[in-house]
Write a structure and sequence with these properties.
alpha/beta; five-stranded parallel β-sheet; 125 residues; globular
C-alpha cells in the first residue's frame, strides 16, 4: 500500500516569529508547510511545489491593508480549501464578514490549534 503524502498547509503571517513557530509546530505534527508573509508569497510558494493546500492558516492583518479574508478568498478562488483565520486583534468587521471562517485568537494554544487541524481533517489524533 502506497503511503499518502503529508497534508500541505499554507501559513500566511507577516510576523516572522509567528510564521516560523506556526510552521515548526505544523511540521512536528507531520504536515508539509508553505510559509508566506503575504498572499503573493503564498501563491509563489504553492506554484513552486505544484500542489494545492489542504488547509490555509492565515493571520487577519496582513501588509498593505490586506486582510486574511482577502488572502483566503484568493486562494479559495481555484479550490475549496478549509481555512483558519488567526488574529491578535479583537475583530468586528461589518455584517457577517467572518461567516464561514474558523477564527482563533492569538496567542493560539497548541491544543486548540491541534483540535482545529483535526476538525479540518489535516492531522489525525
Amino acid at each position: 500500500m502506497k503511503a499518502s503524502k503529508p497534508k500541505l498547509v499554507v501559513v500566511i503571517d507577516d510576523d516572522p516569529l509567528v510564521l516560523e513557530a506556526t510552521g515548526g509546530l505544523l511540521r512536528s505534527w507531520g504536515c508539509e508547510v508553505v510559509e508566506a508573509d503575504s498572499y503573493g508569497a503564498a501563491i509563489d510558494g504553492l506554484a513552486s511545489i505544484g500542489r494545492r493546500p489542504d488547509l490555509i492558516v492565515c493571520d487577519y492583518r496582513l501588509p498593505e491593508g490586506a486582510t486574511g479574508i482577502d488572502a483566503i478568498k484568493g486562494l479559495r478562488s481555484a479550490f475549496e480549501i478549509p481555512a483558519l483565520l488567526i488574529s491578535g486583534d479583537p475583530i468586528s468587521p461589518p455584517g457577517n464578514a467572518l461567516a464561514g471562517y474558523h477564527l482563533l485568537h492569538k496567542p493560539v494554544d497548541p491544543t486548540t490549534f491541534r483540535a482545529a487541524l483535526i476538525d479540518a481533517d489535516v492531522i489525525q489524533c
